[in-house]
Design goal:
about 120 residues; mainly alpha; 4 helices; transmembrane; membrane; DUF1616 domain-containing protein
């Protein structure tokens, strides 16, 4: 990897996190802005995708990106479908649920590591 690309990766990750947080904050605070829709869309795609990618450490990078992107879309659709089915749909509620599910998915590997849950093989 080129040294400039390696140094700019944390900067890009920070910009992505900032954009997603700004989108979620604009929706949850009910602030009208021309940036609300694109930033919120970015949050709804990237937050669950990054959370899923963090749980899929065993896959190669391309497979992880594809599975995380598809899983992100599926998670968003399931949240919307369940909220519509229960007559609880709201934009703020949908963003809050996606944020909570993403945070939970981010914390799963950490919890698994802290409790020491590992797969142990038995010797025959």
């Amino acid at each position: 990897m080129h040294p400039i690309a390696r140094e700019s990766l944390p900067l890009l990750a920070g910009a992505a996190v900032g954009t997603g947080v700004a989108g979620a904050a604009l929706v949850l605070a009910d602030i009208s802005s021309p940036l609300r829709a694109p930033f919120t869309f970015f949050f709804l795609i990237v937050a669950p995708g990054a959370a899923l990618a963090s749980t899929l450490r065993g896959l190669d990078p391309l497979t992880r990106v594809v599975v995380a992107a598809i899983g992100s879309i599926v998670l968003d659709l399931l949240v919307g479908q369940v909220m519509l089915m229960l007559h609880l749909w709201s934009i703020r509620g949908g963003v809050a649920v996606v944020a909570a599910l993403s945070a939970t998915l981010f914390l799963l590997p950490l919890a698994r590591h802290s409790y020491g849950v590992t797969v142990r093989r038995r010797d025959p």
